[in-house]
Amino acid sequence: MKRRFLYGLLGLVMVTALVLWGCVSSMAVAPAKVLAPSEDPAPSASKPFGKDKVSYEKPRPPHVNEVIFVSGTNYEMGYHYGYQVAEQIRVCMDESWMKAIQKAGSYDEAILRLQAFQYYIKEYTPELIDEMIGIAHGATVAGFETCYADILVINCEPNFGNVTGETPRPSPLDELPPKEYQKKYKTKGWEGRTRKYTSLSVPDYSNAVLSVGYELNDEACSNWAVWGDATTDGKLLCGDSVDGGVFRQFTYIGFPEEGYAFIAHVDRYGEICLVPMMNNKGLWSSAAYLGTPRDIDTGYGIPVNMAARHLVQFHDNAEDAKDELLNWDIPGGRGGNRILADTDGNAYIFELTAVLRTYREAGDFGETDWVAGANTFVIPENCELYDPPIKPFVDDWRIRQLWGFFGQYVGDVDLEFLKMMYRYQNPDGRITIGRRVNEVVILARPHDGDRGKWYEWNGTVGPNVKYGRGIECMDAPNGYFTLELRSSPAEVTNRAQRSARTALGKVDLALRELSLPEHAADYLLLRELLSEANNEWYVGYHNEVDAFHASGDEAIYLYSKALTAYAKCEAMCNGMYEVLVPQPTTPEDLGLDPLEPY
């Protein structure tokens, strides 16, 4: 027992050291002098980048996800986004162009595919073109020259695998960006954001050399929503894990001029969103990748992740959001296994491709006030589109686990139960939703008002998770941070400050209860780590105080820096606490009956 503790402690020390290194190097937010939107960047703000500067040392992804605020019009939200994380966007932009050209086979074909996807983005969610232009402008002002097409490729490249050079394209195809947007952002009053350092043109990668790129994708995501009789208090609880892929993720909180405040998770910097999302009207959206069994199931359309961001910004219930989503052209594949749920008990899980517009509800397959999905079709007619037909309740162990947990423990589901569910490891070694390839796990309690809660883990929910393969997730802290979707950046930040302080106190007490002198060395090591977490808390607090005295964009950026520091502090502390105080990993640990074979 003592040896296991020491091994766990050694691992925690190494992980936390990496986290602290990431704390110093990862966040590309406003420099000391916050640039007004109309100012040119100082010469020192320009940094080498791109294919002509191969010696540039690119930042690695943070070990604890950054959290930033954006606000205003969609353009202004994009500007805030791009300005604060510009350096990471530049890295993702280079990666996305590489993958786009590889998948398309040539630069010219990649441009045609971007124009085709843009056609549907403009038709269904025109405000997101403004937002992508804003992201490019903000990143450029921060010192990393970026254009609209760079942001568009980050958002559309994951869907390039669903189309070919023979796939029918919509007509007419417009320039990048469309002409009316070029005119809009070049008229008097906007020069300050588009002048010499921002290009609305398309970069030329026509001489790029094609190569075979490696991309990890286990297609192992899971997402679900549970409410009513299934939960201990009848309230909506939701969850999503993004699994597989070597990406750069973060979370942002939006306060739009039009629509509802929301939280959105991003899998690569520059992306409008991936999953999950929730707003302050109690609407939740999550998704998983879904296969395309036939050629006709692929095609052009609006990327589903972008469609969902629009739905969460502008809808206050799952019913209306469902109706709008079903009327749109979508490409299939990424995000096709989507959930929309709200606090009024409406919930739908979709099985979408370019031609399928199908969904299921609670009760269709024995669910009692819950829905769940995991990268596979469940509706029998859709399963039969494969040859041979797939059998999710026989062959997919994640589907069997979800139905086992939610089906057997009706009325017992709460936050601690859900954490346990992601720590649970099948004794036979079979695949589970809690795996080493968990890139991020998010649990949430949406709320129609300003009490929505969001719990986010980098990597797995617990250090005990050992099945599956993992790469970049292996040095994650296995601790979560908490966000509350309050009515302003100041209130969100203040609640995060309290959550981080509570986590510090929890670890402090656990350390004081260690058996001394037997664990004296362990105590001293953990005390040092706790001190570093406490330092992060003060980084957050000092930025929070500065934000109080600031205004406009500067206040937004300072609250973002404070919130990220509090998130790091809380995640570090909760990771330490999991080593000091073992958490439930089976239903029996919560006083429930053993999980029956599923």
Structure notes:
The chain is globular and about 75 Å long. The strands form two sheets. It has an eight-stranded mixed beta sheet. A six-stranded antiparallel beta sheet has the order 11-2-3-12-13-14. With 598 residues, it is of the alpha+beta class. The chain has helices at residues 2-25, 74-84, 86-104, 107-124, 127-141, 148-156, 179-184, 191-194, 304-314, 318-326, 380-383, 392-395, 397-408, 415-423, 489-512, 520-548, 552-580, and strands at residues 67-72, 222-226, 237-243, 250-256, 262-266, 277-279, 284-286, 339-341, 347-352, 357-360, 370-373, 438-445, 452-458, 480-485. Helix 1 (2-25) runs parallel beside helix 16 and helix 16 (520-548) packs antiparallel against helix 17. The chain has 17 helices and 14 strands. Residues 1-7, 17-55, 187-199 and 211-219 have low confidence and may be disordered. It starts with a helix and ends in an 18-residue tail after the last helix. The longest helix has 29 residues, at 520-548.
What attributes does this structure have?
disordered N terminus; 598 residues; six-stranded antiparallel β-sheet
Helix and strand arrangement:
Elements: H1 2-25, E1 67-72, H2 74-84, H3 86-104, H4 107-124, H5 127-141, H6 148-156, H7 179-184, H8 191-194, E2 222-226, E3 237-243, E4 250-256, E5 262-266, E6 277-279, E7 284-286, H9 304-314, H10 318-326, E8 339-341, E9 347-352, E10 357-360, E11 370-373, H11 380-383, H12 392-395, H13 397-408, H14 415-423, E12 438-445, E13 452-458, E14 480-485, H15 489-512, H16 520-548, H17 552-580
Parallel strand pairs: 1-4
Antiparallel strand pairs: 2-3, 2-11, 3-12, 4-5, 5-6, 6-7, 7-8, 8-9, 9-10, 12-13, 13-14
Helix pairs in contact: 1-16, 1-17, 2-5, 3-4, 3-6, 5-6, 15-16, 15-17, 16-17
